[in-house]
Fold this sequence. Notes:
Subcellular location (chains A, B, C, D): Cytoplasm
Radius of gyration of chain A: 19 Å
Largest sheet of chain A: 7 strands, parallel
Protein name (chains A, B, C, D): N-acetyl-gamma-glutamyl-phosphate reductase
CATH architecture of the largest domain in chain A: 2-Layer Sandwich
Number of helices of chain A: 11
GO molecular function, one term (chains A, B, C, D): NAD binding
Oligomer: homotetramer
Low-confidence stretches of chain A: none
Main location (chains A, B, C, D): cytoplasm
Mean pLDDT of chain A: 97
Amino acid sequence: MIKVGIVGGTGYTGVELLRLLARHPNVAVEAITSRSEAGMAVSELYPNLRGHYDDLAFSEPDADRLARCDAVFFATPHGVAHALAGELLDKGTRVIDLSADFRLRDTEEWAHWYGQPHGAPQLLDDAIYGLPEVNREQIRQARLIAVPGCYPTAVQLGLLPLLEAGVIDADRIIADCKSGVTGAGRGAKVPSLLAEASESMKAYGASGHRHLPEIRQGLADAAKGPVGLTFVPHLTPMIRGIHATLYGRLTTDPGDLQALFERRFASEPFVDVMPAGSHPETRSVKGANLCRLAVHRPGDGDTVVVLSVIDNLVKGASGQAVHNLNLMFDLDELAGLDAPAIMP
Amino acid sequence: MIKVGIVGGTGYTGVELLRLLARHPNVAVEAITSRSEAGMAVSELYPNLRGHYDDLAFSEPDADRLARCDAVFFATPHGVAHALAGELLDKGTRVIDLSADFRLRDTEEWAHWYGQPHGAPQLLDDAIYGLPEVNREQIRQARLIAVPGCYPTAVQLGLLPLLEAGVIDADRIIADCKSGVTGAGRGAKVPSLLAEASESMKAYGASGHRHLPEIRQGLADAAKGPVGLTFVPHLTPMIRGIHATLYGRLTTDPGDLQALFERRFASEPFVDVMPAGSHPETRSVKGANLCRLAVHRPGDGDTVVVLSVIDNLVKGASGQAVHNLNLMFDLDELAGLDAPAIMP
Amino acid sequence: MIKVGIVGGTGYTGVELLRLLARHPNVAVEAITSRSEAGMAVSELYPNLRGHYDDLAFSEPDADRLARCDAVFFATPHGVAHALAGELLDKGTRVIDLSADFRLRDTEEWAHWYGQPHGAPQLLDDAIYGLPEVNREQIRQARLIAVPGCYPTAVQLGLLPLLEAGVIDADRIIADCKSGVTGAGRGAKVPSLLAEASESMKAYGASGHRHLPEIRQGLADAAKGPVGLTFVPHLTPMIRGIHATLYGRLTTDPGDLQALFERRFASEPFVDVMPAGSHPETRSVKGANLCRLAVHRPGDGDTVVVLSVIDNLVKGASGQAVHNLNLMFDLDELAGLDAPAIMP
Amino acid sequence: MIKVGIVGGTGYTGVELLRLLARHPNVAVEAITSRSEAGMAVSELYPNLRGHYDDLAFSEPDADRLARCDAVFFATPHGVAHALAGELLDKGTRVIDLSADFRLRDTEEWAHWYGQPHGAPQLLDDAIYGLPEVNREQIRQARLIAVPGCYPTAVQLGLLPLLEAGVIDADRIIADCKSGVTGAGRGAKVPSLLAEASESMKAYGASGHRHLPEIRQGLADAAKGPVGLTFVPHLTPMIRGIHATLYGRLTTDPGDLQALFERRFASEPFVDVMPAGSHPETRSVKGANLCRLAVHRPGDGDTVVVLSVIDNLVKGASGQAVHNLNLMFDLDELAGLDAPAIMP
């Protein structure tokens, strides 16, 4: 069994890791840390886990204990992995970071968006961006993974085929994204209350959002050059799910767009290109490590519309983290990730 | 008192007319028709109306009875107003049609989208498109009003200032719209069930939607020339509300966009330009005849983003219909429409 | 115009008072206080009010300024009205307290449930329990009103006819109540997050809840003797609404239960006894100052089941407070409270 | 592998069977029937299953084909299993019926509640009521299982310890139950629309519901005598989940209620007695085959309150059906049923 630890396990990505790992045939959770809840049984905070992990309680973060794990997940706010990852790596423990700490290669950009200096620039050379559909081979060899953000996963997967094929204007991409409220985390904030967020829809961060530079970096890699991206996220009255609606302008005859997408993801176990004309629903991936895509070309004009849905907590966070783990430890890619989505 | 009738009152726009008119100081509802529910008391179908309209029951449509009204609202599926409006107009009753029957000036386009020939082309010259922010003076004189659709209202109001000022590329407009489920009406359809539509988000009609030609027609009027529009509607898990996120490419220095919007709607009682940097929420207009707008220019680049929210049943349907009535009968524009939105 | 002030206006009962008073023909809001938001425009916190109260901002609580009002509403946590009401009453300003401060006649019981001594026992003789269906005449003369709690309103109205008629065993009453999340207020608490509270149902306070003694006191008055009550509240995934399901054991032939209820509330403008066999929905009173009731006797046995629904923010709080104001100032009882519920 | 068929697979219990069986190590789904959708791929109707069952399509019901299965699930409206079960049993195929066809032992009562004569009285002697916590040994030997209804499962599990111990008055039991909308099935009915059922709460069937006789029968078995039960179901604005709040009057000193419950279910893998003072949430069992219980005795009085939650589609239907299958074929009871609930 591969021994893993989880740092910062009280948030939604933490409990989702536990849910997925409960059924993973090759993984044992050895430690889960939380400063605020140290001493509390995991199943007390998350009663859905009663009957699983009955001996597991949150503990104070302890680098020595964590270093006895084969791998450690960080499900923490930004900055924490900066401080702790180096020590673990030095002791031979691999790190899978679900936070934003190692996603941006440009430390100045990181400092700009997160309002503090980058805390571990010396580790950036080791950090692999954990999007398996792009970096599978590097992930297999990696010791430090930056798991992509939720919006960046949905947007990149939807645009990769078009940018790699060079058929859209990379300078004028629009990503209109809708997220469930778990994207805002488990913090007690008034705008996240059911009384405030349900029965309503709103945009936020229309003038700039922290996921923008991450998406831009990934798209630029695919386009082999800078991209112009307008990204507007919206808060949607549901618990889980991201729906990205992506707009690009065709600059050349793309041929059969459906075939382009199907070819690109033909061997990807966690990307589902739906039949032509489909409109994927976020609920069709609820709880599952999947991105479902559909590509449209309204009126056979020069605008291509891609619809991309994921569960923000699974393919957008914890499931993708487990996928990375499976690759790093040469396990079946589907291990722990083979359950169908729950619907209705 | 102005005597009004409602044809097809069992749907959501019908009950919403009754809710608004219950407090209108100058209007009396004389008749409400429904073939399916003839004989049933209005308050039996809509218990929120118990204590109001206690003597009002649905009746079979009867042109003579309706013609005794000063005005008749059609809250019907398309085709019904085609068949009945002419007779009422001939008898001197004014018609306010909430359906799509008289919205498109091009009868062939109408026939294309609605799958049947236009039933009353001879009335089109009389039909005024009931968007008061554009056609206020004509509405005052009109005898036949085509109340705009919900999406078209939200999209046009958000784009009018930009197109009238000629500052965006009219050929590349994107309208990404999110609607609550009442937009699909009160019909019993599986995709509209709570078990199917809640906790999920999906696009629909990405390759073409009936509101597209209506929006295009209105925008072309504002732009004084044809427009290129990509319109993607989405079903959102909430009862009421439309959030339109509108993207345009600036082709010239627009100056102060905030001022442009504020000027355009300075004297409009039902359009609220929010302060710069705002993100309007659909719940801030729930139950109210209002469009709230915010304009953004991310990164001071050449893309302008407009956020436009309405209650699809009020400013997107029944409230706008009452506003038209107020104008046609020279009443206070706010009569019956002065209640604040309900929040939370 | 009657000049009113609101103390503690940032919570949900505060904004609901503003929403209702915006359309009240005889009332002007002169002041609204909030320590935390002093200086902020009301419409900044509550954008649904933009266009109403545009000159009104939250101010620091100031007894002199409040005392210039004819009446002051307290929409505050418990304890605040204790501290401030006396001074206002001394200066001739009438007080309508929406908190629990003056609801219980027994100060020891108050201290037990609220964990602090009662702060103004000397005012209790003046305090009238503001349930108009019971105390209408006293309310007319009152200078200090204790507006009933939300659960107590729904439960008492549903049980009054049975207890007053003496037809059920007062010793074995069960009130199973379901409330929307606004009942928990606008505080930022994890269990009230959409991500936690939606798609779920749970009981709380099954072993004891602060509304229990208030309900017991009111029922005892009706029964003219002590009552035995089991009260279990539940958190329901909706914004507004309380559904009380009340169970009593018939101890005598009650005759026609439907007639008993209809007679009891025949002249009550805000209680609607629905037809026999009905099942009132909370949405049928959303936004309206109404309690809708239905009475059932399953299998003609000896158990009577009463279904009672209110909007917890209206008939369960702010609407009832306005009703009290109308009575105290000899206004039309329906002033400001005549709008139908919003549905769907 | 055990070969199974599913009759009537288009409803919610059908898709839930497929979801659970997708991960069952010992079961292969050989056939799934639907008259209305014959020919359609399963994953077309239920896109969450894309990637699973890719060769499985709905077929016309065909007794010969179904009889080649080891077991057949009926996920059909009442009456269907009456017509078809006998033939399958004769051919040696075991039947697990999720409908109400074989739940009531009294055929006249069945006819009364379902409005038609019982169609297969000769099979009743073979039918075992599939509540493993009561009938585990008989289920192991059974060839025909009547899977309990959702409400009956939640109510019986919560009351069994009390009735078996004889500590409550069996004549005055109250079951106040709250169900998510999937309890009403996938039929397109107006009251089940999101626009109608969300943001609202209502009781239904207060004067009588089809699950009443089933619950009464099960409770009477536990009490070894007739019981008096008042059962009021409520429609709750959520997709999945039942919350049963159960009230009984203690007739004798019950001793330690918590211990009583823990003892009763000590060896039950799918019943979780939560710690004293708990309030189980329906979301803590979402997607999982679990009943979580908590027992309260408010004010140490003579009323006992039991809180019982299940996922109506899992422990209340398809999961319990799989549990029965596991028992009948001597498999691990947890096979296919070991995944934690999904939360948030």
